[in-house]
Amino acid sequence: MSEPADPATAAGTLTVEDLSVHYGGVCAVRSIGFTVAPGQAVGIIGANGAGKTSTLKALMGLVPRSGGRIGFGGTDLTRIRARDVVRHGIGYVPEGRHVFPGLAVEKNLLLGAYARSWRGEQTRQSLAEVYELFPVLGEMRGRLAGALSGGQQQMLAVGRALMAKPRLMLLDEPSMGLSPKLVEDILAVLRRLREDGLSLLLVEQNAKLTFEATSDCLVMENGEVAMTGTSAELRDDVRVRRIYLGI
Predict the structure, then answer these.
(1) Would you state the pLDDT for residue 38?
(2) Rounded to an integer, what distance in angstroms lies between the CA atom of residue 36 and that of residue 201?
(3) Which option is the CATH number for 1-89+167-247: 3.40.50.300, 3.40.640.10, 1.10.530.10, 2.30.30.240?
(4) Could you read off the pLDDT of 154-167 as tens digits, one per residue?
(5) What residue stretches are annotated with the ABC transporter domain (predicted)?
(6) Is the pLDDT of residue 7 over 50?
(7) Average pLDDT of 163-173?
């Protein structure tokens, strides 16, 4: 997806080579490869069952990988446990948010910092940064997460991932179930994160959102990468517009 990073920035490059995922005898992801350079935003689009979510889960170590290699920051993540991936600078916002409904908003956020070695003032600073990005979370810090709206829970899921100070954020369907206005709010947040230098890997069925939020994109079909290109190129590609945008 991008030119090889130079040595000065290679520490923040995600490199995926020949990644495969099988569920029993079914191949969900077949020998895909791509890179995400420091500060780059890459999107993955495709129909249901194309292998998008399985790709993100495989990167995080949440599903077994049947082949391939994953490198990030000079570290081979291929055999690293899921709980340790966060410590290497990768944040994850899962599909469906998965906040802890019986815990207060601030407790949910603090759980996002569990993998960090620092505490105290740095944690308070991270909380302040999340509340500055999402003022509504600051206003509701003592409210149970289960009482938040769907959009507010999505903000909470993103904020929780940011608490670990990632260099790369993986987001799975952040616009799912949200109103058009809230989708615009999420898009604004993604742009802000990019401006702050955070790398993004975004999985979305909302192709329009993906093209607006990313610089480059993969189109997945039946577990394989069917097309790659800049987001602008793919947005205007007749095949993509017909198959994924319905026009």
Answers:
(1) 95
(2) 7
(3) 3.40.50.300
(4) 999 999 999 989 99
(5) 14-247
(6) no
(7) 94
Task: Report the distance separating Cα 20 and Cα 223, nearest Å.
Answer: 9
Query: Are 194 and 36 contacting, i.e. CB atoms less than 8 angstroms apart?
Result: no
Mean pLDDT, residues 41-58 taken together? 93
Tokens of 243: 């198959």
Q: Does the predicted TM-score (pTM) go above 0.85?
A: yes
Cα gap 145→199, rounded to integer Å: 27
Three-state SS letters, the chain: CCCCCCCCCHHHCEEEEEEEEEECCEEEEEEEEEEECCCCEEEEECCCCCCHHHHHHHHHCCCCCCEEEEEECCEECCCCCHHHHHHHCEEEECCCCCCCCCCEHHHHHHHCCCCCCCCCHHHHHHHHHHHHHCHHHHHCCCCEHHHCCHHHHHHHHHHHHHCCCCCEEEEECCCCCCCHHHHHHHHHHHHHHHHCCCEEEEECCCHHHHHHHCCEEEEEECCEEEEEEEHHHHHCCHHHHHHCCCC
Q: What is the pLDDT of residues 13-49, one digit of tens each?
A: 999 999 999 998 899 999 999 999 999 999 999 888 8
Q: Write b or e for each residue in 172-211: b if 16 or more Cβ atoms lie within 10 A of its Cβ, otherwise e.
A: bbbbeebeeebbebbbebbeebbeeebbbbbbbbbbebbb
For CATH 3.40.50.300, list the domain ranges present in the chain. Answer: 1-89+167-247
